[in-house]
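Summary for the steering committee. One of the milestones for this cycle was to obtain a three-dimensional model of the protein with magnesium ion bound, which we needed before selecting residues for the alanine scan. The sequence and ligand used are listed below.
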Amino acid sequence: MKSFFKKIKDGFKRTQEVVSDGIQAALQRSPKIDEDLYDEIEAILLRGDVGPATTDYLLTELRARVKRDKLEDSSELSDAMRAIMEDILTQGRAAGDPLSGPESPRVVMVVGVNGVGKTTSLAKLARRVQEDGRTPVIAAADTYRAAASEQLEIWANRLGVHLVKSQHGADPGAVAFDGVQAGKARNANVVFVDTAGRLQTQAGLMAELTKIHRVCGKAMEGAPHEVLLVLDATIGQNAISQARLFSESVPVTGILLAKLDGTSKGGVVLAISHELGIPVRYAGVGEKADDLVDFDPKLFAEGLVPKAE
Ligand SMILES: Nc1nc2c(ncn2[C@@H]2O[C@H](COP(=O)(O)OP(=O)(O)OP(=O)(O)O)[C@@H](O)[C@H]2O)c(=O)[nH]1
Ligand SMILES: [Mg+2]
C-alpha cells in the first residue's frame, strides 16, 4: 500500500508546490499573525484555484478561530487551516463506497464534458471492482463516435470485462438499458454506463442525459444508484459551473476529479466541496488503469497544509 500514498502525493504535487509550499514559506516569513499574512494566504489560495468564494470562507473561518482560540503565533495557523479544509472536504459525504451497495447489480453512470477522462476513469473503476473479486459489466452508451466504443472495447478486452455496445448512432438509452439487463443476467456486481461527452450548455444533449438516467430506472428500479461526474482538474474554477449545470440534468452523487496529476489547480477540490456540496470521491492521477485514488479529505488537507514534522 506504500505506493497508494505515494500516488496521492505525486498526483497532486504541482498543487502542493503552489499551495502548501507557499503557505509554509509565508508562515515562516511572518511569525506574527497580521493583516499582511492574511493577505498573503489569500493570494496563495487564489493561485491554487481555491476560488474567491471558498477562499473568502476559509479566511473568515480562520480569523474566527484565531480569535476564538486566541492564537498569536503564525505557526499555530497551520493546524487551524488544515482543520477548516478537512471540514470543507468532508461536507456532504455519505458513508460507504460508491461502487458497493445492497443492489445487484449496482448501476453507476459516468457523465461529463468532452475529453475530461470519463472512459478512462470508468475503466479504472471497473478494474477496482475486479480487484475486489467482483464482476463489472460495461455499457458503451457513447454511441456518437465510432471511436468511443472502440476505445472501451480495448479497455474491456484488456481487463477481461463484458462489454455491451451497439452500432454507431444507436440510441444511448437503449444501450444503457441493455447494459443493465446484461448485468442482471450475468449476476454482475456493478454495471458501468459510459456516456458521450457533452457541453453543459447543449440543452438537447443534456436532456438526452436525463433520458439515459430514466431508462436505467426502467431497466432496474432505483438505478442508476450512483451518478459520477468526471471533472478535469486542469480547468480549475470552470469545473464549478460544469458541475452546477450537470446537476440540473441528472442527480450527481459524486465527483471524480481526473487529471489531478500535472496541474497546480487542485485547490478547486475545496471550491467543489464548499460551493456544491457534492462529495469528491476519486481522483485520477495518470493515464494507466491503476492511476486512480480514493479521495481522502484528511490526506488531501494534510497535503495542502502539512503537519509540522
Ligand atoms: N494525466 C492524466 N490523463 C488522463 C487522466 N484521465 C484521463 N486522462 C487522459 O485524458 C484523455 C481523454 O480521456 P477519455 O477517458 O477518453 O475522456 P472522455 O471524457 O471519455 O472523452 P469523450 O468520451 O471524448 O468525451 C486521454 O488521453 C486519457 O488518457 C488522468 O487522471 N490523468
Ligand atoms: Mg469517452
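Key point for the committee: The two ends are 22 Å apart (CA to CA).
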